[in-house]
Amino acid sequence: MRLIASRMQVLLDSANVLLEKLDLPPWQEYKEAASTAFHDVRVATMSSCKFGHLTFRPFFILLGIILQCLAVVLQIILENSIYHGWRAAKEFYFQFQMATIWFIRYQRNLSPSAIYAEVAVLTAIATLWLLRRHVQKHRYYERTMAWYEVRKQKVMKRYNHFVDQVGKTSTFLALLLPHLLYFAFAAIIKKLLPWFVTYLATKTPLNAVIQYFHPLYCTFLIIGKSTHHLRTYTVDNAAGDKKSDSKTKPSNIKRQQKQKTELEELRKEVVDILKYWVVYAIIIATVRTGKLIPFVGHLFTVAGGNVTKRNSRQGILSKFRFSSKFVEEISLVFFTWLRFMPSSVTGQQKLSLKGRGNSPIEIIYNKISSLVKSAMSSSASLTNKATGSHLGNGSILSWLVGKLDFPLTILVLARAISQETKQKVMATVTELSDLLPAAVTLFVPGCSSYGVIYVSLVVPATYSIKSCDEIDEKSSNVELMESKVNDASRFLRFWMIHALVTWILDSFAHILAWVPLSTHAIWVLWAFLQLETSTRRFYGWFESEVETQSTVKRVIAALPSSVDSQKDTSSNETQEVEKSKKED
Fold it and tell me: Angle, to 10 degrees, between the axis of helix 324-340 and the axis of helix 171-192?
Protein backbone atom coordinates (compact mmCIF):
# COMPACT_ATOMS: atom_id res chain seq x y z
CA MET A 1 0.00 0.00 0.00
CA ARG A 2 2.84 2.34 0.82
CA LEU A 3 4.35 1.58 -2.55
CA ILE A 4 1.05 2.40 -4.33
CA ALA A 5 0.66 5.58 -2.29
CA SER A 6 4.20 6.63 -3.15
CA ARG A 7 3.62 6.02 -6.81
CA MET A 8 0.33 7.97 -6.75
CA GLN A 9 2.18 10.83 -5.06
CA VAL A 10 4.78 10.79 -7.79
CA LEU A 11 2.06 10.90 -10.47
CA LEU A 12 0.32 13.79 -8.78
CA ASP A 13 3.56 15.69 -8.53
CA SER A 14 4.28 15.07 -12.20
CA ALA A 15 0.77 16.22 -13.17
CA ASN A 16 1.18 19.41 -11.13
CA VAL A 17 4.52 20.08 -12.77
CA LEU A 18 2.94 19.52 -16.21
CA LEU A 19 0.08 21.90 -15.43
CA GLU A 20 2.48 24.53 -14.24
CA LYS A 21 4.49 24.18 -17.46
CA LEU A 22 1.36 24.35 -19.69
CA ASP A 23 0.16 27.44 -17.94
CA LEU A 24 -3.57 26.75 -18.69
CA PRO A 25 -6.00 29.69 -18.27
CA PRO A 26 -8.51 29.53 -15.51
CA TRP A 27 -12.05 28.23 -15.87
CA GLN A 28 -13.50 31.71 -15.73
CA GLU A 29 -11.82 32.63 -18.99
CA TYR A 30 -13.29 29.54 -20.71
CA LYS A 31 -16.71 30.48 -19.47
CA GLU A 32 -16.45 34.03 -20.70
CA ALA A 33 -15.19 32.89 -24.17
CA ALA A 34 -18.07 30.40 -24.49
CA SER A 35 -20.64 33.05 -23.60
CA THR A 36 -19.11 35.48 -26.12
CA ALA A 37 -19.17 32.84 -28.91
CA PHE A 38 -22.78 31.97 -28.16
CA HIS A 39 -23.73 35.66 -28.28
CA ASP A 40 -21.96 36.13 -31.62
CA VAL A 41 -23.68 33.07 -33.12
CA ARG A 42 -27.06 34.33 -31.95
CA VAL A 43 -26.48 37.80 -33.38
CA ALA A 44 -25.27 36.37 -36.72
CA THR A 45 -28.28 34.09 -36.95
CA MET A 46 -30.69 36.94 -36.24
CA SER A 47 -28.99 39.20 -38.83
CA SER A 48 -29.11 36.39 -41.42
CA CYS A 49 -32.81 35.88 -40.75
CA LYS A 50 -33.49 39.61 -41.08
CA PHE A 51 -31.46 39.76 -44.30
CA GLY A 52 -33.35 36.79 -45.77
CA HIS A 53 -36.66 38.30 -44.70
CA LEU A 54 -35.86 41.64 -46.33
CA THR A 55 -34.55 39.94 -49.48
CA PHE A 56 -37.40 37.51 -50.12
CA ARG A 57 -40.19 39.63 -48.70
CA PRO A 58 -41.30 41.03 -52.12
CA PHE A 59 -41.39 37.54 -53.58
CA PHE A 60 -43.41 36.26 -50.65
CA ILE A 61 -45.81 39.18 -50.95
CA LEU A 62 -46.20 38.61 -54.71
CA LEU A 63 -46.65 34.89 -54.19
CA GLY A 64 -49.27 35.54 -51.54
CA ILE A 65 -51.19 37.91 -53.85
CA ILE A 66 -51.05 35.39 -56.69
CA LEU A 67 -52.20 32.55 -54.46
CA GLN A 68 -54.99 34.70 -53.08
CA CYS A 69 -56.18 35.64 -56.58
CA LEU A 70 -55.88 32.02 -57.67
CA ALA A 71 -57.92 30.90 -54.69
CA VAL A 72 -60.61 33.46 -55.52
CA VAL A 73 -60.68 32.39 -59.18
CA LEU A 74 -60.83 28.72 -58.25
CA GLN A 75 -63.60 29.44 -55.81
CA ILE A 76 -65.62 31.32 -58.46
CA ILE A 77 -65.00 28.57 -61.02
CA LEU A 78 -65.97 25.89 -58.55
CA GLU A 79 -69.15 27.70 -57.52
CA ASN A 80 -70.15 28.43 -61.11
CA SER A 81 -69.20 24.93 -62.26
CA ILE A 82 -71.35 23.36 -59.60
CA TYR A 83 -74.21 25.75 -60.29
CA HIS A 84 -74.06 25.57 -64.08
CA GLY A 85 -73.22 21.88 -63.98
CA TRP A 86 -76.35 21.23 -61.97
CA ARG A 87 -78.40 23.34 -64.38
CA ALA A 88 -76.82 21.59 -67.38
CA ALA A 89 -77.54 18.19 -65.88
CA LYS A 90 -81.18 19.16 -65.30
CA GLU A 91 -81.43 20.57 -68.83
CA PHE A 92 -79.89 17.42 -70.25
CA TYR A 93 -82.37 15.30 -68.33
CA PHE A 94 -85.34 17.28 -69.65
CA GLN A 95 -83.97 17.30 -73.20
CA PHE A 96 -83.28 13.57 -73.07
CA GLN A 97 -86.79 12.98 -71.75
CA MET A 98 -88.34 15.10 -74.51
CA ALA A 99 -86.20 13.44 -77.18
CA THR A 100 -87.15 9.99 -75.93
CA ILE A 101 -90.86 10.86 -75.96
CA TRP A 102 -90.54 12.38 -79.44
CA PHE A 103 -88.64 9.36 -80.76
CA ILE A 104 -91.20 6.93 -79.36
CA ARG A 105 -94.07 8.92 -80.86
CA TYR A 106 -92.23 9.20 -84.19
CA GLN A 107 -91.58 5.48 -84.31
CA ARG A 108 -95.22 4.73 -83.52
CA ASN A 109 -96.37 6.95 -86.39
CA LEU A 110 -94.09 5.24 -88.94
CA SER A 111 -95.43 2.84 -91.53
CA PRO A 112 -94.39 -0.80 -91.45
CA SER A 113 -92.21 -0.35 -94.56
CA ALA A 114 -90.28 2.52 -92.91
CA ILE A 115 -89.77 0.44 -89.78
CA TYR A 116 -88.45 -2.44 -91.89
CA ALA A 117 -86.12 -0.02 -93.67
CA GLU A 118 -84.77 1.25 -90.33
CA VAL A 119 -84.22 -2.30 -89.14
CA ALA A 120 -82.45 -3.13 -92.38
CA VAL A 121 -80.16 -0.08 -92.05
CA LEU A 122 -79.32 -0.92 -88.44
CA THR A 123 -78.72 -4.53 -89.37
CA ALA A 124 -76.44 -3.42 -92.22
CA ILE A 125 -74.45 -1.16 -89.89
CA ALA A 126 -74.07 -3.91 -87.32
CA THR A 127 -73.11 -6.37 -90.06
CA LEU A 128 -70.48 -4.01 -91.43
CA TRP A 129 -69.04 -3.48 -87.97
CA LEU A 130 -68.90 -7.24 -87.34
CA LEU A 131 -67.41 -7.74 -90.81
CA ARG A 132 -64.74 -5.13 -90.06
CA ARG A 133 -63.82 -6.89 -86.84
CA HIS A 134 -63.76 -10.22 -88.67
CA VAL A 135 -61.50 -8.81 -91.40
CA GLN A 136 -59.16 -7.28 -88.84
CA LYS A 137 -59.06 -10.50 -86.84
CA HIS A 138 -58.22 -12.75 -89.78
CA ARG A 139 -56.01 -10.10 -91.52
CA TYR A 140 -57.74 -10.38 -94.88
CA TYR A 141 -56.50 -6.95 -96.03
CA GLU A 142 -52.85 -7.74 -95.29
CA ARG A 143 -53.19 -11.12 -96.98
CA THR A 144 -54.80 -9.51 -100.03
CA MET A 145 -52.04 -6.92 -100.29
CA ALA A 146 -49.40 -9.63 -99.95
CA TRP A 147 -51.12 -11.63 -102.71
CA TYR A 148 -51.25 -8.47 -104.87
CA GLU A 149 -47.54 -7.81 -104.36
CA VAL A 150 -46.70 -11.39 -105.31
CA ARG A 151 -48.86 -11.19 -108.45
CA LYS A 152 -47.37 -7.81 -109.28
CA GLN A 153 -43.85 -9.14 -109.00
CA LYS A 154 -44.75 -12.08 -111.25
CA VAL A 155 -46.31 -9.77 -113.85
CA MET A 156 -43.34 -7.42 -113.70
CA LYS A 157 -40.99 -10.38 -114.06
CA ARG A 158 -42.87 -11.57 -117.14
CA TYR A 159 -42.92 -8.03 -118.50
CA ASN A 160 -39.16 -7.65 -118.00
CA HIS A 161 -38.60 -11.02 -119.65
CA PHE A 162 -40.78 -9.93 -122.55
CA VAL A 163 -38.91 -6.63 -122.83
CA ASP A 164 -35.59 -8.48 -122.78
CA GLN A 165 -36.78 -10.79 -125.56
CA VAL A 166 -37.91 -7.80 -127.60
CA GLY A 167 -34.63 -6.05 -126.82
CA LYS A 168 -32.70 -8.93 -128.36
CA THR A 169 -34.52 -8.24 -131.60
CA SER A 170 -34.69 -4.43 -131.43
CA THR A 171 -33.50 -2.19 -128.58
CA PHE A 172 -35.49 0.75 -129.95
CA LEU A 173 -38.72 -1.26 -129.87
CA ALA A 174 -37.99 -2.36 -126.30
CA LEU A 175 -37.54 1.24 -125.20
CA LEU A 176 -40.67 2.23 -127.08
CA LEU A 177 -42.81 -0.52 -125.56
CA PRO A 178 -44.01 1.38 -122.38
CA HIS A 179 -45.11 4.31 -124.50
CA LEU A 180 -46.96 2.02 -126.89
CA LEU A 181 -48.72 0.45 -123.92
CA TYR A 182 -49.76 3.90 -122.69
CA PHE A 183 -51.26 4.94 -126.02
CA ALA A 184 -52.95 1.56 -126.35
CA PHE A 185 -54.48 2.05 -122.91
CA ALA A 186 -55.65 5.57 -123.89
CA ALA A 187 -57.23 4.18 -127.08
CA ILE A 188 -59.05 1.49 -125.09
CA ILE A 189 -60.41 4.09 -122.65
CA LYS A 190 -61.54 6.24 -125.58
CA LYS A 191 -63.24 3.21 -127.15
CA LEU A 192 -65.01 2.11 -123.97
CA LEU A 193 -65.77 5.53 -122.42
CA PRO A 194 -65.71 8.15 -125.18
CA TRP A 195 -67.99 10.54 -123.28
CA PHE A 196 -65.68 10.48 -120.26
CA VAL A 197 -62.58 11.42 -122.27
CA THR A 198 -64.49 14.16 -124.11
CA TYR A 199 -65.82 15.53 -120.83
CA LEU A 200 -62.34 15.65 -119.25
CA ALA A 201 -60.85 17.31 -122.35
CA THR A 202 -63.55 19.90 -123.10
CA LYS A 203 -65.58 20.51 -119.94
CA THR A 204 -62.87 20.57 -117.30
CA PRO A 205 -59.69 22.67 -116.93
CA LEU A 206 -57.60 19.49 -116.67
CA ASN A 207 -55.91 20.07 -120.03
CA ALA A 208 -54.80 23.60 -119.13
CA VAL A 209 -53.68 22.51 -115.67
CA ILE A 210 -51.52 19.68 -117.00
CA GLN A 211 -49.82 21.52 -119.82
CA TYR A 212 -49.65 25.05 -118.44
CA PHE A 213 -50.57 25.83 -114.84
CA HIS A 214 -48.91 22.88 -113.12
CA PRO A 215 -45.55 23.53 -114.87
CA LEU A 216 -45.86 27.21 -113.94
CA TYR A 217 -46.45 26.28 -110.32
CA CYS A 218 -43.45 23.93 -110.35
CA THR A 219 -41.33 26.66 -111.97
CA PHE A 220 -42.33 29.17 -109.31
CA LEU A 221 -41.42 26.72 -106.53
CA ILE A 222 -38.06 25.88 -108.12
CA ILE A 223 -37.19 29.58 -108.47
CA GLY A 224 -37.98 30.15 -104.80
CA LYS A 225 -35.96 27.10 -103.80
CA SER A 226 -32.96 28.21 -105.89
CA THR A 227 -33.11 31.74 -104.49
CA HIS A 228 -33.20 30.43 -100.91
CA HIS A 229 -30.34 28.01 -101.61
CA LEU A 230 -28.17 30.73 -103.16
CA ARG A 231 -28.78 33.04 -100.20
CA THR A 232 -27.87 30.40 -97.64
CA TYR A 233 -24.81 29.43 -99.66
CA THR A 234 -23.67 33.08 -99.79
CA VAL A 235 -24.18 33.53 -96.04
CA ASP A 236 -22.28 30.32 -95.25
CA ASN A 237 -19.40 31.35 -97.51
CA ALA A 238 -19.23 34.77 -95.84
CA ALA A 239 -19.16 33.15 -92.39
CA GLY A 240 -16.53 30.65 -93.58
CA ASP A 241 -14.30 33.43 -94.90
CA LYS A 242 -14.36 35.16 -91.51
CA LYS A 243 -13.48 31.91 -89.73
CA SER A 244 -11.19 30.02 -92.07
CA ASP A 245 -10.23 27.51 -89.36
CA SER A 246 -13.85 26.35 -89.01
CA LYS A 247 -13.97 24.84 -92.50
CA THR A 248 -12.38 21.62 -91.31
CA LYS A 249 -14.85 21.05 -88.47
CA PRO A 250 -17.10 17.97 -88.77
CA SER A 251 -20.26 20.10 -88.54
CA ASN A 252 -19.13 22.32 -91.41
CA ILE A 253 -18.17 19.30 -93.49
CA LYS A 254 -21.64 17.82 -92.97
CA ARG A 255 -23.23 21.14 -93.91
CA GLN A 256 -21.18 21.28 -97.10
CA GLN A 257 -22.20 17.75 -97.99
CA LYS A 258 -25.83 18.69 -97.38
CA GLN A 259 -25.44 21.74 -99.62
CA LYS A 260 -23.96 19.59 -102.38
CA THR A 261 -26.86 17.14 -102.12
CA GLU A 262 -29.44 19.93 -102.21
CA LEU A 263 -27.64 21.54 -105.14
CA GLU A 264 -27.66 18.28 -107.07
CA GLU A 265 -31.41 17.84 -106.49
CA LEU A 266 -32.00 21.45 -107.48
CA ARG A 267 -29.93 20.97 -110.63
CA LYS A 268 -32.05 17.99 -111.69
CA GLU A 269 -35.29 19.88 -111.07
CA VAL A 270 -34.08 22.91 -113.04
CA VAL A 271 -32.99 20.73 -115.97
CA ASP A 272 -36.31 18.82 -116.03
CA ILE A 273 -38.52 21.90 -116.01
CA LEU A 274 -36.34 23.74 -118.55
CA LYS A 275 -36.54 20.78 -120.90
CA TYR A 276 -40.31 20.79 -120.61
CA TRP A 277 -40.51 24.49 -121.45
CA VAL A 278 -38.24 23.92 -124.45
CA VAL A 279 -40.50 21.15 -125.76
CA TYR A 280 -43.62 23.19 -125.06
CA ALA A 281 -42.20 26.29 -126.80
CA ILE A 282 -41.15 24.35 -129.89
CA ILE A 283 -44.58 22.68 -130.15
CA ILE A 284 -46.37 26.03 -129.86
CA ALA A 285 -43.96 27.65 -132.32
CA THR A 286 -44.53 24.82 -134.83
CA VAL A 287 -48.31 25.12 -134.57
CA ARG A 288 -48.32 28.92 -134.88
CA THR A 289 -45.90 28.85 -137.80
CA GLY A 290 -47.96 26.17 -139.52
CA LYS A 291 -51.07 28.35 -139.22
CA LEU A 292 -49.28 31.21 -140.99
CA ILE A 293 -48.04 29.13 -143.93
CA PRO A 294 -50.37 29.32 -146.97
CA PHE A 295 -52.26 26.17 -147.98
CA VAL A 296 -50.78 24.23 -145.05
CA GLY A 297 -52.43 26.45 -142.46
CA HIS A 298 -55.76 24.66 -142.92
CA LEU A 299 -54.28 21.58 -141.29
CA PHE A 300 -53.39 23.56 -138.14
CA THR A 301 -56.70 25.44 -137.97
CA VAL A 302 -59.26 23.98 -135.59
CA ALA A 303 -62.87 23.75 -136.71
CA GLY A 304 -65.42 24.90 -134.18
CA GLY A 305 -68.20 22.47 -135.02
CA ASN A 306 -68.42 18.89 -136.14
CA VAL A 307 -66.22 18.07 -139.12
CA THR A 308 -68.77 15.65 -140.56
CA LYS A 309 -71.35 18.42 -141.01
CA ARG A 310 -69.30 20.57 -143.33
CA ASN A 311 -70.38 21.90 -146.70
CA SER A 312 -69.32 19.77 -149.68
CA ARG A 313 -68.41 22.89 -151.69
CA GLN A 314 -65.31 23.54 -149.55
CA GLY A 315 -61.83 22.78 -150.85
CA ILE A 316 -59.94 19.54 -150.51
CA LEU A 317 -57.50 20.89 -147.89
CA SER A 318 -60.33 22.12 -145.68
CA LYS A 319 -61.61 18.56 -145.33
CA PHE A 320 -58.49 17.69 -143.35
CA ARG A 321 -59.31 20.17 -140.59
CA PHE A 322 -59.84 18.64 -137.15
CA SER A 323 -62.64 19.41 -134.72
CA SER A 324 -61.91 21.25 -131.49
CA LYS A 325 -63.01 18.21 -129.42
CA PHE A 326 -60.56 15.95 -131.23
CA VAL A 327 -57.72 18.43 -130.76
CA GLU A 328 -58.50 18.82 -127.06
CA GLU A 329 -58.57 15.05 -126.56
CA ILE A 330 -55.29 14.55 -128.41
CA SER A 331 -53.75 17.40 -126.41
CA LEU A 332 -54.90 15.86 -123.11
CA VAL A 333 -53.48 12.42 -123.97
CA PHE A 334 -50.24 13.86 -125.34
CA PHE A 335 -49.45 16.23 -122.46
CA THR A 336 -50.44 13.63 -119.87
CA TRP A 337 -47.94 11.30 -121.52
CA LEU A 338 -45.37 14.09 -121.73
CA ARG A 339 -45.70 15.22 -118.11
CA PHE A 340 -46.43 12.10 -116.09
CA MET A 341 -45.21 9.08 -118.07
CA PRO A 342 -42.32 7.54 -116.06
CA SER A 343 -39.07 6.45 -117.62
CA SER A 344 -39.78 2.82 -116.72
CA VAL A 345 -42.96 0.97 -115.84
CA THR A 346 -41.12 -1.34 -113.46
CA GLY A 347 -39.29 1.48 -111.67
CA GLN A 348 -35.89 0.55 -113.10
CA GLN A 349 -34.24 3.48 -114.86
CA LYS A 350 -33.24 2.32 -118.31
CA LEU A 351 -31.19 4.37 -120.71
CA SER A 352 -31.52 4.78 -124.42
CA LEU A 353 -28.90 3.88 -126.97
CA LYS A 354 -27.00 7.11 -126.38
CA GLY A 355 -27.09 6.77 -122.60
CA ARG A 356 -29.94 9.26 -122.13
CA GLY A 357 -33.23 8.97 -120.29
CA ASN A 358 -36.27 7.17 -121.64
CA SER A 359 -38.86 9.65 -120.38
CA PRO A 360 -41.09 11.37 -122.98
CA ILE A 361 -39.55 14.79 -122.34
CA GLU A 362 -36.05 13.33 -122.76
CA ILE A 363 -37.03 11.61 -126.00
CA ILE A 364 -38.55 14.69 -127.63
CA TYR A 365 -35.93 17.04 -126.21
CA ASN A 366 -33.07 14.94 -127.55
CA LYS A 367 -34.67 14.95 -130.98
CA ILE A 368 -35.45 18.66 -131.26
CA SER A 369 -32.61 20.31 -129.30
CA SER A 370 -29.97 19.75 -131.97
CA LEU A 371 -32.42 20.79 -134.70
CA VAL A 372 -33.31 24.04 -132.92
CA LYS A 373 -29.68 24.97 -132.29
CA SER A 374 -28.67 24.19 -135.85
CA ALA A 375 -31.66 26.13 -137.24
CA MET A 376 -30.86 29.18 -135.14
CA SER A 377 -27.14 29.07 -135.95
CA SER A 378 -27.87 28.66 -139.67
CA SER A 379 -30.35 31.56 -139.67
CA ALA A 380 -27.87 33.73 -137.78
CA SER A 381 -25.06 32.84 -140.18
CA LEU A 382 -27.25 33.61 -143.19
CA THR A 383 -28.17 36.96 -141.67
CA ASN A 384 -24.53 37.79 -140.95
CA LYS A 385 -23.56 36.89 -144.49
CA ALA A 386 -26.35 39.00 -145.91
CA THR A 387 -25.70 42.05 -143.71
CA GLY A 388 -22.00 41.81 -142.95
CA SER A 389 -20.37 40.43 -146.05
CA HIS A 390 -18.63 43.76 -146.72
CA LEU A 391 -16.88 43.60 -143.34
CA GLY A 392 -13.42 42.22 -142.90
CA ASN A 393 -14.30 39.41 -140.51
CA GLY A 394 -17.67 38.66 -142.06
CA SER A 395 -19.66 39.21 -138.87
CA ILE A 396 -21.59 42.30 -137.90
CA LEU A 397 -21.48 41.25 -134.24
CA SER A 398 -17.69 41.18 -134.02
CA TRP A 399 -17.53 44.52 -135.84
CA LEU A 400 -20.02 46.11 -133.42
CA VAL A 401 -18.31 44.63 -130.35
CA GLY A 402 -14.94 45.89 -131.60
CA LYS A 403 -16.35 49.38 -132.12
CA LEU A 404 -17.98 49.48 -128.68
CA ASP A 405 -15.10 48.04 -126.69
CA PHE A 406 -12.79 51.06 -126.98
CA PRO A 407 -15.29 53.82 -125.98
CA LEU A 408 -16.63 51.70 -123.13
CA THR A 409 -13.07 51.13 -121.89
CA ILE A 410 -12.48 54.90 -121.97
CA LEU A 411 -15.66 55.45 -119.93
CA VAL A 412 -14.52 52.85 -117.40
CA LEU A 413 -11.12 54.52 -117.04
CA ALA A 414 -12.83 57.90 -116.64
CA ARG A 415 -15.04 56.30 -113.95
CA ALA A 416 -18.16 57.33 -115.82
CA ILE A 417 -19.36 53.71 -115.75
CA SER A 418 -18.24 50.63 -113.86
CA GLN A 419 -16.69 47.48 -115.24
CA GLU A 420 -19.91 45.63 -114.43
CA THR A 421 -21.92 48.11 -116.51
CA LYS A 422 -19.54 47.60 -119.41
CA GLN A 423 -19.97 43.84 -119.19
CA LYS A 424 -23.77 44.25 -119.10
CA VAL A 425 -23.67 46.45 -122.23
CA MET A 426 -21.49 43.93 -124.08
CA ALA A 427 -23.75 41.05 -122.96
CA THR A 428 -26.82 43.00 -124.14
CA VAL A 429 -25.27 43.58 -127.55
CA THR A 430 -24.38 39.89 -127.79
CA GLU A 431 -27.93 38.85 -126.87
CA LEU A 432 -29.48 41.28 -129.33
CA SER A 433 -27.32 39.87 -132.11
CA ASP A 434 -29.32 36.62 -131.95
CA LEU A 435 -32.43 38.62 -132.85
CA LEU A 436 -31.08 39.79 -136.22
CA PRO A 437 -32.90 37.07 -138.22
CA ALA A 438 -36.18 38.14 -136.62
CA ALA A 439 -35.37 41.83 -137.16
CA VAL A 440 -35.20 41.23 -140.90
CA THR A 441 -38.87 40.13 -140.89
CA LEU A 442 -39.94 43.57 -139.65
CA PHE A 443 -39.01 45.05 -143.01
CA VAL A 444 -40.73 42.34 -145.07
CA PRO A 445 -44.49 42.92 -145.49
CA GLY A 446 -46.62 40.16 -143.98
CA CYS A 447 -43.70 38.39 -142.28
CA SER A 448 -43.51 40.22 -138.94
CA SER A 449 -45.60 37.47 -137.30
CA TYR A 450 -42.84 34.98 -138.09
CA GLY A 451 -40.39 37.32 -136.34
CA VAL A 452 -42.61 37.47 -133.26
CA ILE A 453 -42.71 33.65 -133.09
CA TYR A 454 -38.95 33.52 -133.53
CA VAL A 455 -38.28 36.08 -130.79
CA SER A 456 -40.86 34.89 -128.27
CA LEU A 457 -40.40 31.11 -128.60
CA VAL A 458 -37.42 29.97 -130.68
CA VAL A 459 -34.76 32.26 -129.21
CA PRO A 460 -35.61 31.61 -125.51
CA ALA A 461 -35.93 27.89 -126.28
CA THR A 462 -32.42 27.94 -127.77
CA TYR A 463 -31.06 29.82 -124.75
CA SER A 464 -32.74 27.27 -122.47
CA ILE A 465 -31.20 24.41 -124.46
CA LYS A 466 -27.73 25.93 -124.08
CA SER A 467 -28.32 26.43 -120.36
CA CYS A 468 -29.50 22.80 -120.03
CA ASP A 469 -26.39 21.59 -121.82
CA GLU A 470 -24.20 23.57 -119.44
CA ILE A 471 -25.96 22.61 -116.24
CA ASP A 472 -26.57 18.99 -117.27
CA GLU A 473 -22.86 18.27 -116.93
CA LYS A 474 -22.04 17.21 -113.36
CA SER A 475 -19.21 19.07 -111.67
CA SER A 476 -17.48 18.70 -108.32
CA ASN A 477 -16.88 22.45 -108.13
CA VAL A 478 -19.75 23.80 -106.03
CA GLU A 479 -19.18 27.45 -106.93
CA LEU A 480 -19.23 26.69 -110.66
CA MET A 481 -22.43 24.70 -110.30
CA GLU A 482 -23.99 27.50 -108.23
CA SER A 483 -23.25 30.02 -110.98
CA LYS A 484 -24.73 27.69 -113.61
CA VAL A 485 -27.90 27.19 -111.56
CA ASN A 486 -28.16 30.95 -111.10
CA ASP A 487 -27.81 31.48 -114.85
CA ALA A 488 -30.44 28.83 -115.55
CA SER A 489 -32.85 30.44 -113.09
CA ARG A 490 -32.90 33.46 -115.41
CA PHE A 491 -34.66 31.41 -118.09
CA LEU A 492 -37.08 29.98 -115.52
CA ARG A 493 -38.01 33.55 -114.67
CA PHE A 494 -38.40 34.33 -118.36
CA TRP A 495 -40.91 31.50 -118.85
CA MET A 496 -42.94 32.81 -115.92
CA ILE A 497 -42.96 36.28 -117.51
CA HIS A 498 -43.68 34.68 -120.88
CA ALA A 499 -46.83 33.07 -119.48
CA LEU A 500 -48.05 36.37 -118.00
CA VAL A 501 -47.33 38.45 -121.13
CA THR A 502 -48.85 35.79 -123.41
CA TRP A 503 -52.02 35.79 -121.34
CA ILE A 504 -52.26 39.60 -121.57
CA LEU A 505 -51.61 39.65 -125.33
CA ASP A 506 -54.13 36.86 -125.98
CA SER A 507 -56.72 38.74 -123.91
CA PHE A 508 -56.32 41.88 -126.04
CA ALA A 509 -55.66 40.10 -129.35
CA HIS A 510 -58.90 41.29 -130.95
CA ILE A 511 -58.13 44.90 -130.04
CA LEU A 512 -54.48 44.72 -131.11
CA ALA A 513 -55.52 43.34 -134.50
CA TRP A 514 -56.97 46.79 -135.34
CA VAL A 515 -53.93 48.74 -134.11
CA PRO A 516 -51.38 49.63 -136.83
CA LEU A 517 -47.89 48.19 -136.36
CA SER A 518 -49.04 46.24 -133.29
CA THR A 519 -47.01 43.22 -134.42
CA HIS A 520 -43.87 45.37 -134.54
CA ALA A 521 -44.59 46.64 -131.02
CA ILE A 522 -45.06 43.07 -129.78
CA TRP A 523 -41.74 42.13 -131.40
CA VAL A 524 -39.99 44.99 -129.57
CA LEU A 525 -41.64 43.91 -126.30
CA TRP A 526 -40.40 40.33 -126.61
CA ALA A 527 -36.95 41.54 -127.64
CA PHE A 528 -36.83 43.74 -124.54
CA LEU A 529 -37.95 40.90 -122.27
CA GLN A 530 -35.17 38.69 -123.69
CA LEU A 531 -32.52 40.74 -121.91
CA GLU A 532 -31.26 39.37 -118.61
CA THR A 533 -31.69 42.65 -116.74
CA SER A 534 -35.26 43.04 -118.00
CA THR A 535 -36.12 39.45 -117.11
CA ARG A 536 -34.84 39.70 -113.55
CA ARG A 537 -36.34 43.16 -113.03
CA PHE A 538 -39.82 42.19 -114.26
CA TYR A 539 -39.80 38.94 -112.31
CA GLY A 540 -38.72 40.80 -109.17
CA TRP A 541 -41.66 43.16 -109.65
CA PHE A 542 -43.99 40.20 -110.26
CA GLU A 543 -42.73 38.39 -107.15
CA SER A 544 -43.11 41.48 -104.98
CA GLU A 545 -46.64 42.00 -106.29
CA VAL A 546 -47.56 38.41 -105.50
CA GLU A 547 -46.22 38.78 -101.95
CA THR A 548 -47.55 42.27 -101.10
CA GLN A 549 -50.43 42.77 -103.60
CA SER A 550 -49.63 46.48 -103.64
CA THR A 551 -51.12 47.01 -107.11
CA VAL A 552 -54.41 45.45 -106.03
CA LYS A 553 -54.52 47.74 -103.00
CA ARG A 554 -53.83 50.76 -105.20
CA VAL A 555 -56.60 49.78 -107.59
CA ILE A 556 -59.04 49.29 -104.72
CA ALA A 557 -58.00 52.63 -103.23
CA ALA A 558 -58.58 54.30 -106.60
CA LEU A 559 -62.15 53.03 -106.88
CA PRO A 560 -64.97 55.62 -106.59
CA SER A 561 -66.29 54.09 -103.37
CA SER A 562 -62.96 54.41 -101.61
CA VAL A 563 -62.44 57.93 -102.98
CA ASP A 564 -65.86 59.00 -101.73
CA SER A 565 -65.21 57.49 -98.34
CA GLN A 566 -61.90 59.35 -98.12
CA LYS A 567 -63.68 62.57 -99.05
CA ASP A 568 -66.35 61.96 -96.41
CA THR A 569 -63.76 61.30 -93.72
CA SER A 570 -61.76 64.40 -94.71
CA SER A 571 -64.92 66.56 -94.72
CA ASN A 572 -65.91 65.25 -91.28
CA GLU A 573 -62.45 66.07 -89.97
CA THR A 574 -62.62 69.63 -91.34
CA GLN A 575 -66.07 70.14 -89.78
CA GLU A 576 -64.81 68.98 -86.39
CA VAL A 577 -61.82 71.34 -86.64
CA GLU A 578 -64.13 74.28 -87.49
CA LYS A 579 -66.40 73.48 -84.53
CA SER A 580 -63.44 73.36 -82.16
CA LYS A 581 -62.25 76.73 -83.46
CA LYS A 582 -65.69 78.28 -82.93
CA GLU A 583 -65.86 76.96 -79.39
CA ASP A 584 -62.42 78.41 -78.64
Answer: 130
Confidence category of residue 567, pLDDT binned at 50, 70, 90: very low
CA distances to 280, 365, 465, 514 from 369, in Å: 12, 6, 6, 36
- How many helices (H) and strands (E) the chain has is answered by 22, 2
Beta carbons of 278 and 286 less than 8 angstroms apart: no
DSSP 418: -
- How far is the CA of 173 from the CAs of 166, 169, 341, 352, in angstroms? 7, 8, 17, 11
- Give residue-wise pLDDT tens across range 65-97: 999 898 888 888 887 778 778 888 888 889 999
Closest by CA to 283, choosing from 367, 201, 227, 348, is 367
Mean residue pLDDT across the chain = 77
Alpha helices in 322-458 (DSSP H): 324-340, 360-388, 396-413, 419-433, 436-440, 448-453
Q: Which of 331, 322, 286, 329 is nearest to 302 (CA)?
A: 322
What distance in Å separates the CA atoms of residue 292 and residue 280, rounded to the nearest whole number?
19
**DSSP letter string over 78-112?**
HHHHHHHHHHHHHHHHHHHHHHHHHHHHHHHHS-H
Nearest-CA neighbor of 447 among 241, 282, 293?
A: 293
What residue spans of 110-170 are helical by DSSP H?
112-138, 140-169
Residue 520's nearest CA partner among 460, 439, 457, 456 is: 439
CB 358 within 8 A of CB 176: no
Confirm whether pTM is higher than 0.85: no
Neighbouring residues of 307: CB distance < 8 A, sequence distance ≥ 6: 319, 321, 322, 323, 326
Give the model confidence (pLDDT) of 91-124 as tens digits. 888 999 999 999 888 888 888 888 889 899 999 9
AA letter at 468: C
Q: Considering only CA atoms, which of 289, 291, 288, 307 is closest in space to residue 299? A: 291
